[in-house]
Amino acid sequence: MRPSPARLLNILVPVKRAVDYAVKIRVNPQQTGIDANVKHSMNPFDEIAVEEAVRLRERLKGAVTSITALSIGPPKSLDTLRTALAMGADRAVHVALPDGAPAPEPLAVARTLRAVIARHNDAAAAPADRIDLVVLGKQAIDDDLGVTGQMLAGLLGWGQATCASRLEVDVAAGEALVTREIDGGAEELRCRLPLVVTTDLRLNEPRYASLPNIMKAKKKPVETLSPADLGVDYTPQLETLKVAEPPVRVGGGKVANVDELIAKLKEAGITAA
């Protein structure tokens, strides 16, 4: 028998249902947002987070006790959770919202994650159930805000490592080594657990869920919670006044020589400084 590790690691991976990256975005007729009646899938950065959690379990060989995927959203968010389970997550938590409800803002998401972690990490929790690592995408491709991970770390008082392009965890030492790309090179951060890590594109390439794993995912447990269960208020703090498509680009024109170019510029009211 392999000796049990000195410490165990339970990983939480938040995942978001977003408009598929290959879909051409359209503004709805009311100009209040985008047309949601299009294909949705898991946010690509969150796919990378799920993949990294699964790879950590493969590398650490017994030290990772569980990978929990969590999603906040309408009933169709269950499809996103099933994808995470098929990729290798062990269980899922769905914070259910009604159809048509506005997507929660980053602070509300961070408060939700904090509440879920608090349920796992209370005084009566067994060491194997305690969440010491949260891995999530650095941003969602629908709003591109990129602040949920930082807000969560602030609420929890945990360390944070953003935009990770490499992640190594030493469970016995309670440390993680995170590499992040910066202008002109790479930066290495040595962090203590518990820790919040946000993933960048070059961290890994997510695997495809195989058909057998898709079938197994249907039998994995999914816990359904409501915002009231977690004591989180999703009332929006921001108001979107208007969403509009960018103006149609006008085709350019050709000029025969510099003099004609200068004349065109003058006609357009453009003069030299």
TrEMBL record:
SUPFAM superfamilies: Adenine nucleotide alpha hydrolases-like. It holds the Pfam family ETF. Residues 32-234 form the Electron transfer flavoprotein alpha/beta-subunit N-terminal domain. GO terms for molecular function: electron transfer activity. Binds 1 FAD per dimer. Binds 1 AMP per subunit. It is found in: Mitochondrion matrix. One of its GO terms (cellular component) is mitochondrial matrix. Gene3D superfamilies: HUPs. The keyword Phosphoprotein does not apply. Its cofactor is FAD; AMP. Keywords: Electron transport, Mitochondrion, Transport. GO terms for biological process: amino acid catabolic process; fatty acid beta-oxidation using acyl-CoA dehydrogenase. The electron transfer flavoprotein serves as a specific electron acceptor for several dehydrogenases, including five acyl-CoA dehydrogenases, glutaryl-CoA and sarcosine dehydrogenase. It transfers the electrons to the main mitochondrial respiratory chain via ETF-ubiquinone oxidoreductase (ETF dehydrogenase). Heterodimer of an alpha and a beta subunit. Belongs to the ETF beta-subunit/FixA family. This is Probable electron transfer flavoprotein subunit beta. It comes from Hypholoma sublateritium (strain FD-334 SS-4). The lineage of its organism: Eukaryota, Fungi, Dikarya, Basidiomycota, Agaricomycotina.
